[in-house]
Design a protein that fits this description.
With 320 residues, the chain is α/β, with parallel strands linked by helices. It has helices at 11-21, 37-46, 60-70, 85-94, 96-115, 151-170, 192-204, 225-237, 254-264, 291-297, 305-316, and strands at 2-6, 27-32, 51-54, 74-77, 121-127, 139-140, 174-179, 182-183, 210-213, 219-220, 223-224, 243-246, 252-253, 273-276, 287-288. The chain has a seven-stranded parallel β-sheet with strand order 3-2-1-4-5-7-12, with helices on both faces. The two termini are 38 Å apart.
Amino acid sequence: MRILVIGPFGQDAHFLLSALSAQPAIKLYGVNHRESPEKIEFFRKFHPSVQIQVNDLTRKSECKGILDAINPHYIFHLAAVHSSVKKMTLLDDKKKAAMWGCHHTITENLVDWITYNGESRLVYAASSQMFAGHKPGASINESSLPFPVNEYGKSKFAGWQVIKEARESRGLHLSCGILFNHTSEFSKPEFLFPSLARQIVQIIEGNQNVIRVKNKFSFIDISYAGEIALGLIAMAKSKYPGDYILGSGTSNEVSKILEATITHLGLDFEKISIQSTETLSEQLCLVSNSTKAHENLGWKSVLSPDQILIKMVRAKTKLK
């Protein structure tokens, strides 16, 4: 079996490739949009057998050429142009064309190719940002009305529309994973949990006794990226294609996550100050409803937020 991963250097791709490489008789391929020697060098430490190519899949002919050459059974479109919430407004201005190219144009090109290669299956990674305009605290499922408020959410939604329309009109095996917040020890450093993990490590090493966060009273629905990857694989293997929300289904306050993590690590929580740098009011989040994924795919999020954060801290230290 031949499997192609678009966007092979991200955390989701790392876990997906790790799970797939453990299975027999599978050839793995990755396509990235540009040369990245440093990323490839790091990537090779974990995935030496994956064949990496550099192609601009927004170009229809180039996309067709690479797909014809590989002729993949499964395609995972994990590529995304995004960043932390703090930087997302800047991306809207500077990376709008790149977002639409990555999330919409590539998806169109993939679907067009699959139309004439009906045995191939596609899993497209979308985002909870497609529903960001809903009232905080709302529960989101596959039938919730999309309400994107930034270019990232809008372009991801446009890609999802391509998937849904082609699946219904052409009978193709096209699935969409609507991913809520997820993280791991391979997450980009500017995101919340990597920042928290770094600060906790500094406390363990005796370098500070303060954890700074934008709003310690904010809530988050967050899962482990390794579990998200298993959900994406389950979609590809499922007899029937579909759209699936993947998230923890829980809303947890950042300060409570930190308290549970610090206590579990054996640190004295009373001696550690958690400071908000911008906001002090309660800030709710959208909450995922992954019932469909659990019932149809047997998938669910298992690790709690504090277990995820502990895992990330331990990856940076010698703690057991």
